Amino acid sequence: MTEIFPSALPPAARAIRLSPRHALEAELMAMPPVAAMGLRIVEATGQRLRLHAPLAANVNDKGCAFGGSLTSLMTLAGWSLITLRLAEIGIEADVFVADSEIRYRAPLYADLEATAELVDGESWQVFLDTLRNRGRARLGVLAEVALPEGGVATECRSRYAVKLRG
Amino acid sequence: MTEIFPSALPPAARAIRLSPRHALEAELMAMPPVAAMGLRIVEATGQRLRLHAPLAANVNDKGCAFGGSLTSLMTLAGWSLITLRLAEIGIEADVFVADSEIRYRAPLYADLEATAELVDGESWQVFLDTLRNRGRARLGVLAEVALPEGGVATECRSRYAVKLRG
């Protein structure tokens, strides 16, 4: 992973020369509701990003994963996938979630892991070309939380709006 | 508000004879991710339920309300609307969110207030009749977070699946 330090990252992260991945993790944990979830990045390949959060901090009244935490984790996984990709190639931009469709398929009685990838038909190259040419672009991401026994607990299709800074 | 104490409520709440509204608030705050949001019920008319959460506990990297917190609050407002109605009429049932469609329309730089009501075309009477006859029923809820200057920050259309206990 290339060591670059875009101004999108917090000053503290740039000062101590964190990698983009560690800087992103620091940025996520600086948000109080995200810190409360106990989130961490467990995989970031460029094509896929996976976030983990312990069940204990994200449990509901039925002893399984709280729907709000599942949705937060899936939404953040998509946001992180795009934010990290932009940071790695040195593009300064703001990333906003625009809309989401969520299916809660089965209860999860284990730690939460959300995996985010582009939805079928989306292309990083088309997205980046549009962003450079027009200053803004949208990108669709599919995030899922798997069940430990196989199958899917929840899935979330989101569109993110990205705007170049400056 | 009638004082009834269905077994849907936590034993502690029944023991000290809380109203259904206060028992629901206690049940919500017993979930760690909800306690972290600092949520409280500010209105519960039977037709409409409104939840409040302070911005400080739910702020993102841009200084506005975190999308995950907005969605959690809207989803919980709908869940609470149904859960409180059932508790008030003494029906013991579990309420699950099945799916949601969310629009993030504008950033919110103020405390979060989510208001939930049935979507147009839904009827409490039809829902309750179906639940009593079939043991399960679905109900659509629209939850919104308003902007202090007017207009809508976010909206969430969810369907909830409800199953009688026992």
What is shown here, in short?
The first copy, chain A, has 166 residues and is an alpha+beta fold. Chain A is 33% helix and 32% strand.
Structural topology:
Two copies of one chain form a homodimer.
Chain A (H helix, E strand, L loop, with lengths): L10 H5 L4 H10 L2 H6 L2 E5 L4 E5 L13 H22 L4 E12 L7 E7 L5 H11 L1 E11 L5 E13 L2
Antiparallel strand pairs in A: 1-2, 2-4, 3-6, 4-5, 5-6
Q: What would your notes on this structure say?
A:
Chain A has 166 residues and is of the alpha+beta class. Chain A is 33% helix and 32% strand. The first copy, chain A, contains five helices and six strands. Chain A has helices at residues 11-15, 20-29, 32-37, 67-88, 124-134, and strands at 40-44, 49-53, 93-104, 112-118, 136-146, 152-164. The first copy, chain A, has a six-stranded antiparallel sheet with strand order 1-2-4-5-6-3. In chain A, a hairpin with a 5-residue loop joins β5 and β6 (152-164). The longest helix of chain A has 22 residues, at 67-88. Chain A is globular, with a radius of gyration of 16 Å. The interface between A and B is medium-sized, with 35 and 35 residues.
